[in-house]
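Troubleshooting: if your tokenizer reports a length mismatch, compare your output against this known-good record of 246 residues.
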Amino acid sequence: MLLRIGVLAVSLIAAAFCPRPADCAEPVDLELVLAVDVSRSIDDREYELQRQGYVRALTHPNVLAAIHGTPTGRIAVAFVEWAGADFQRLVVPWTVISDVASAESFADRLLVEPRSFWGWTSISGAIDYSVRLFGTEFEGRRRVIDVSGDGVNNSGRPASAARDDALARGIGINGLVILNDPQANFRSQPQPPVDEFYRENVICGPGAFVIAVDDFESFAYAMVNKLVREIAALPVQQDGRLASRK
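Known-good structure output:
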């Protein structure tokens, strides 16, 4: 009986100091959703290169140095895979990355997860899903969705509409596009270049940017550059290179 009373008292005290979960969110410098295209334009080999690219980038010394250089020395990362309008999956939930051990733990969790989907390409669906993840566990000084893919939006509502809604909530969006397949969208009509589409319809927020690579072989290197820029909020050189090849 006394134990129950004690537990109740602790709960009431906690509620008094934290009436809403959002008020007690853990502070981090950056809340970052990695939203990764796994639509049918990405074959198994490309998918594996993409997944390994994220693993290598998240544990790269330059990325960890960027994290250490933030005011809090910690960021929160969630990993989402997406395809068509109704196909999004939270592969790795919000996780704090602050050092080598936490980065490697996140990477290990990512490596054991199977591919989520095949299908169409709904960038808007990916953005809408990612927006709903923010503010649930952490309170970031900045909130960013990092969208990677190799095709334009061909499923769900317009990508620009989802982008505008994210921006209205104070969420920035950056893009990493792979220019390896001009027919990635499986449409008979010509489509705009993917990097151009991202610039005009996807990215938003202060300093928003797109990095384009020619193939998945370059994905890991590009991802390191992108993460360093996002975490440190640094301007990029004209050639887009921020990290050394290691």
